[in-house]
């Protein structure tokens, strides 16, 4: 005869075995130890920092000096180029005038009249060139002598002109942007000797 098993014992769940909970130990916080410097070490640290600062300033100074030297070299080169090629545009215009002179001289069967006409055309071209460069002729003939504008080469007696009047031009004078480029070389008038004697007697 089978033994009846206690139903309460079969239906009961096995008891959960709880393991004892281990207490976690707090990790020890490692505190940084601040090492106190001795007065000598503090002084050495200050010297080290100053040395680093001086090295940076020296590097900045050397860089600035190098940049300045490069700038001076560029400036010198640009100045040399300017001096060398400053008149390039002017010379191109003058070369064109030279071309026309050569054509006039090389013209076949040129008569004196045609040659004169060619020279007059070239003279007009050259006058236009001077005007474009702000070069203006100085009006001298018939004007009172002005030492700022005229250079006297000779004096001639004249009854027709006031004394110290320009009566002849050896070469024209020119101004460049209002400043004297070349003085006009002139002959000026003076009173005839007999007139001077009459003036002296009358005084």
**Count of individual helical segments:** 5
CATH superfamily of the domain at 137-195: Head domain of nucleotide exchange factor GrpE
Oligomer: single chain
Average pLDDT for all residues: 81
Distance between the termini: 190 Å
Low-confidence segments, given as residue ranges, are 1-10
- Shape call: elongated
Strand content: 15-25%
CATH topology of the domain at 137-195: Nucleotide Exchange Factor Grpe, Chain A, domain 2
Give me the strand/helix succession.
Answer: HHHHEEEEEEH
Helix content: 40-55%
Can you walk me through this structure?
There is one protein chain. The chain is α+β, with helices and mostly antiparallel strands. The protein has a domain at 137-195: Nucleotide Exchange Factor Grpe, Chain A, domain 2. It has five helices and six strands, in the order ααααββββββα. The chain has helices at residues 7-11, 39-85, 88-106, 112-132, 193-202; strands at 135-137, 150-157, 166-171, 174-176, 179-182, 184-190. A three-stranded antiparallel β-sheet has the order 1-4-5. α3 (88-106) runs antiparallel to α4 (112-132). The longest helix has 47 residues, at 39-85. The radius of gyration is 53 Å and the shape is elongated. Mean pLDDT is 81; it is low at 1-10.
């Amino acid at each position: 005869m089978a033994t009846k098993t206690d139903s309460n014992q079969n239906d009961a769940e096995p008891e959960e075995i709880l393991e004892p909970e281990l207490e976690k130990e707090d990790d020890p916080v490692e505190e940084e130890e601040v090492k106190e410097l001795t007065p000598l070490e503090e002084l050495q640290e200050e010297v080290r920092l100053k040395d680093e600062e001086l090295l940076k300033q020296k590097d900045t100074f050397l860089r600035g000096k190098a940049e300045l030297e490069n700038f001076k070299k560029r400036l010198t080169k640009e100045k040399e180029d300017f001096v060398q090629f400053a008149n390039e545009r002017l010379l191109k215009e003058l070369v064109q005038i030279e071309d026309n002179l050569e054509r006039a001289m090389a013209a076949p069967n040129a008569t004196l009249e045609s040659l004169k006409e060619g020279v007059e055309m070239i003279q007009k071209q050259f006058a236009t060139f001077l005007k474009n460069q702000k070069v203006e002729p100085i009006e001298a003939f018939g004007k009172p002598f002005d030492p700022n504008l005229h250079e006297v080469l000779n004096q001639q007696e004249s009854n027709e002109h006031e004394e110290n009047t320009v009566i002849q031009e050896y070469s024209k004078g020119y101004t460049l942007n209002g400043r004297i480029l070349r003085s006009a070389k002139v002959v000026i008038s003076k009173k005839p000797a007999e007139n001077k004697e009459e003036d002296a007697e009358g005084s």
